[in-house]
Amino acid sequence: MSNNRILLVDDERDILDLLSYNLRKEGFEVYTAEDGLEGLRKAVELRPRLIILDYMMPQLDGLQTSLRLREEPSLRNSIVVLLSARSEWEIVRAAFKNGANEYIAKPISPVLFVNKVKHLLAN
Q1: Domain, as residue range, for 42
Q2: What is the tally of structural domains in the chain?
Q3: Is the model's pTM score more than 0.70?
Q4: Res. 2: pLDDT tops 80
Q5: Which 8-state DSSP code applies to residue 79?
Q6: Of 1, 14, 25, 61, most Cβ neighbours within 10 A?
Q7: What is the domain-level CATH number for residue 79?
Q8: pLDDT tens digits for range 41-85
């Protein structure tokens, strides 16, 4: 598991492009997937240190994907973050219940996002 390898999973290409660009600028090794199933496959293959999941996606949503990631022995030490425009307490609580280590609300500035990622990977 590479310490700077990140997998971004979001069905919005613009979000993937913006976040991955800013993370790569800071030296991170970034991979992307556009739905939960593709994200699961890439996570098992790449074994990233950090996996960032959008909440609402086709195939598998972020909650389902997080739960399935936690069932995979090779990914138990990966940090899982749920990223969503929805911030109702029930959704945040469900994110943690399904294995997320952190919850980040959208929209978020790229600078703040990168700093949050650095903080998560430093701990």
Answers
A1: 5-122
A2: 1
A3: yes
A4: no
A5: E
A6: 61
A7: 3.40.50.2300
A8: 999 999 999 999 999 998 899 999 999 999 999 999 999 999 999
